[in-house]
Amino acid sequence: xTSSHSFDRLLAGPTLDSGAETxxxxxxRLGDLPDFADPRDLVDELDAxxxxxxxxxxxxxxxKWRALAARTTGRAVVVVNGAEGEPASFKDRMLMAVxxxxxxxxxxxxxxxxxxxxxxxxxxxxxEAATEAMGQAMATRIGEVRQRIRLxxxxxxxxxxxxxxxxxxxNTGDARPTNTPPRVSERGVGxxxxxxxxxxxxxxxxxxxxFGEAWYRSAGRYGSRGTALVTVTGAIARPGVREIELGTTxxxxxxxxxxxxxxxxxxxxxxxxxxxxxxxxxxxLPLDPVVMGTRxxxxxxxxxxxxxxxxxxxxxxxxxxxxxxxxxxxxxxxCVHGLKAIGDATRRVADGRADRxxxxxxxxxxxxxxxxxxxxxxxxxxxxxxxxxxVFGDEFVHHARTGACSVTGARIVAA
Length: 415
Ligand SMILES: Cc1cc2nc3c(=O)[nH]c(=O)nc-3n(C[C@H](O)[C@H](O)[C@H](O)COP(=O)(O)O)c2cc1C
Ligand code: SF4
Known about the structure:
Blueprint: H1 23-30, H2 39-49, H3 61-71, E1 77-82, H4 91-98, H5 100-113, E2 118-124, H6 128-141, E3 148-154, H7 163-172, E4 194-198, H8 199-211, H9 213-217, E5 227-234, E6 240-245, H10 250-256, E7 264-269, E8 275-278, H11 279-282, H12 289-294, E9 303-308, H13 313-326, H14 333-350, H15 358-369, H16 377-391, H17 393-402
Parallel strand pairs: 1-2, 1-4, 2-3, 5-9
Antiparallel strand pairs: 5-6, 7-8, 7-9
Bound molecules: flavin mononucleotide and iron/sulfur cluster (SF4).
Flavin mononucleotide (FMN) is lined by residues 53-57, 59, 81, 83-85, 158-159, 161-163, 196-198, 201, 375-377, 380.
C-alpha cells in the first residue's frame, strides 16, 4: 500500500502482491547476512537504535538480547513469535508472507547473539500464507544455518502468543501461560534459556545489523525515531497494513487511507489490549510507543481501529470484552470469572438492560482483576475497559439510566 506517509524499510522490495521474496532476490537487494565477529557489537547497535519490541509490550530489544547473552552458558533457544492471535492485527502474518528471509535473518542473528543452538518458528496455524512462506524459506536455508530450526504451528487463540504460553506449547502441547518465575529467559524451551521475540522486531534487527543504529534513527517524524508496521481498520476507505514513520499522527494515517475526522468518533489504539481514545485526542496523536506511553495510551502491536461516527462505543466495547473473556486460558479465577462478569455487565449496559449498579460494578471489577493472573491477559483487558469508561463514560451512564443509546438514538430492545 502506498501513501504519502508510508515509508518502506521492512516492506521495501518487490510489490507486496508478488508474494514471498525469494532468497536470491532478498540477497540481491540487501546482501549477505552480516557476520559479527563479536555479537555484542550488534547488541550495542540495537541498544543505541532504541528499537522496542513490536509484539505488544514494547520492551527494548537490545536489552533483552544482552540479558539473555549474559545468562546462556552454551545452549539456548530463540522463539520467533508469529502467533498473531490479536483479531485486529495483520502485520505479522503479512511480513512473514512477503519477507520471510528478513525475518529469518533476524532470528539467526538473535541466535548468534545469545548463543542459541535452536530456533523455533512459532506461527498461528490460521496464517497459511505466512506458514507456507516461512516453511519454504527455512527449507531453502537449512544447510547454511548453524542452528537447528523448526516450525511449530501455534493453536488459534489470543493467549497462545503470550511468551510463556508459546514456550509451554512447544514443550508440552498446552498453549496456556505458566506462572513466572521462572521466566522463559531462565527456563524456556527444553528447560533452556529462551529468547521470545516478535517477527517484526527480528526483521528490524536484521536491517539494523546491516545499516546501523544511525540509519534506524534517521526515519521518524516530530522527534520520533524509526518506522513500524501498523494495521489500520474501521472507518476508512482503504484499510490494511502499512509501514509508517514513527510519529506519524493518527489523522495522517487515516487520511492516507481515505478516513475523515467527521467519519470517526473514537479510535482503539494498540489492539484489544490497548486503549480507546476520543477522536479529538487521537487525531493529532503521534503514533510512537514512548509518546503514547506518556499519555496513558498504548502503541501495542500497532493497531489503529477507527470507530465510525454513529456507532455505539458501549456496544463496541462489549464485543471486545466478550472476546477477551472467552479467550481467557481458564486457569486463574480472577481472569476466568472477572472478565466474564465485566463482559456480561458491559453487554447488559450496551443492550439497555443494565442491572442496578452495573456501571459501578464494571469499574470495581476492572480494578480488581488487574495483576491477578498468571499472565497479563486480565491487565490488558482491564486497560481497555478503563479507557472505555473514560472515553464513553457518559454513554455508559445514559444506556444504564434510560435503556437508550445516546449515539445511535435507538431505544434498545433487550435480546
Ligand atoms: C495475551 C497475550 C498475547 C500475546 N500474543 C502475542 C503474539 O501473538 N505475538 C507476539 O509477538 N507477542 C505476543 N504477546 C507478547 C509476548 O508475550 C512477548 O512479549 C513478545 O512476543 C516479545 O516479543 P517483542 O519483545 O519483540 O515484542 C502476547 C502477550 C499477551 C499477554
Ligand atoms: S491470567 Fe487468564 S489468560 Fe492468563 S494464564 Fe490466567 S486464566 Fe490464562
